[in-house]
């Protein structure tokens, strides 16, 4: 699915720090016209790309190219990772030398893989300092995490207090990180997924059958027990846990989609069997109840006007 990141014309891209403890899961497979860069600060994140699972740990620099559909399937509870995207216009203006030609590609050279490398400690400290400085004039981290950085399913638009400085910093970040990447492609262990597992990820990521495990298994052409066993082994996440993440993702979409629904209505529409079940899973994921987590939604986030 081609995702519209809704970046205003003043911005050549965006940057924010995603934290699993307060960032709603966005599980649908997607791609976008912008080049994406992730830098893992702590914990681990897991993607599925081209039917294969990849898990990345701290200090990993990884790239998602515009035609590369990717699906975030899991994050450890302590995971924190910077997400940066770069518009094609920025790449064209900044990357004129032969050494940067591959940044113009829509796919990586290995279409079935994820281009990445593990940064040396000194290099990691430098890129972390650069990214930390670029987000200082940005929106409140709670707002950015609540909106998944770019406002999926909402009217939110990314904003920054100094777009010119951000654009200049993004250009520097892109070139510096690519210099670290060139000639240092990592060898992440990829796990090829069973077709039934790939189908389950697709259906759950798109918000389908989050409430019915047996129906999901039948649609994937296998038994519920077999799907549960193979899913956990190949994805590294129990199917029940992933289904709960899919329900939470669907809850956020339902809550933000007119007509207005209260918490209980949104929870039932997302596939939770009861409000108590929803509350328990929500609290375990975010460390607080839904009302406390959503308290900031009673007032519009600052500086979120469309550009």
* Whole-number tally of structural domains: 2
Low-confidence stretches: 297-307
Q: Helix content range of the residues, please?
A: 25-40%
Specify the CATH class of the largest domain: Mainly Beta
Distance between the termini: 24 Å
The count of strands amounts to 9
Level-2 CATH architecture of the largest domain: Sandwich
Give the ordered list of helices and strands: EEEEEEEHEHHHEHHHHHHH
User: Largest beta sheet: what is the strand line-up?
Assistant: 1-7-2-5-8
Q: How is this structure best described in words?
A:
- The chain is of the alpha+beta class and 307 residues long.
- The chain has two domains: 13-181, Jelly Rolls; 194-297, Arc Repressor Mutant, subunit A (Orthogonal Bundle), CATH 1.10.10.60.
- Helix content is 38%, strand content 16%.
- It has helices at residues 88-94, 121-134, 141-146, 163-181, 195-205, 213-219, 224-235, 239-255, 263-269, 275-286, 290-293, and strands at residues 13-19, 35-42, 45-49, 52-56, 60-64, 70-75, 80-86, 116-118, 191-192.
- The strands form two sheets. Strands 1-7-2-5-8 form a five-stranded antiparallel beta sheet. Strands 6-3-4-9 form a four-stranded antiparallel beta sheet, with no helix packed on it.
- A hairpin with a 2-residue loop joins strand 3 and strand 4 (52-56).
- Helix 6 crosses helix 7 (224-235).
- The longest helix has 19 residues, at 163-181.
- Mean pLDDT is 87; it is low at 297-307.
